[in-house]
Amino acid sequence: MIRLNVFISVEDVNRAKVLDAAKELTAASVKEDGCIAYDIFESATRGNVLLICETWKDGESLSSHETTAAFIKNIAILKELTAIKVEKFEF
After folding, report:
1. Domains located in the chain, CATH noted
2. How far is residue 36 CA from its own chain's centroid?
3. Of 5, 4, 8, the residue nearest 22 (C-alpha)
């Protein structure tokens, strides 16, 4: 399995648009083959920080996810409006 923790730093002016993109991405991702979990978390202590926590069955599932229309559309929005840090764990 593969777990990605995607930390997103966003300015207040872009927060609503970024959260909408993350929610759209989540709604599509949970329907994909190989997706075990896909969630968005908002920091209780830092209003400018979001976390997408995703778990995939294997690398093939994750690679397939990264070619979907929902991923391509919404990751472009996230990359344009935020700073992203990704932690990857394989187990």
Report:
1. 2-90 (3.30.70.100)
2. 14
3. 8
Instruction: Categorize the per-residue pLDDT at 28 as very low, low, confident or very high, splitting at 50, 70 and 90.
Output: very high
Query: Which pLDDT value is given to residue 84?
Result: 98
Q: How far apart are CA 16 and CA 91, in angstroms?
A: 34
Burial class for 65, CB neighbours closer than 10 Å (0-12, 13-18, 19+): buried
The phi, psi pair for 56, rounded to 5°, reads: -125, 145
Instruction: Tokens for 61, please give them.
Output: 């599932």
Give the whole-angstrom CA distance, residue 3 versus residue 7. 13
Whether 5 contacts 47, CB under 8 Å: no
Per-residue DSSP letter, 12? G
pLDDT at 27: 98
* Res 25: pLDDT: 98
Q: What is the dihedral of CA 51, 52, 56, 61, to 10 degrees?
A: -140
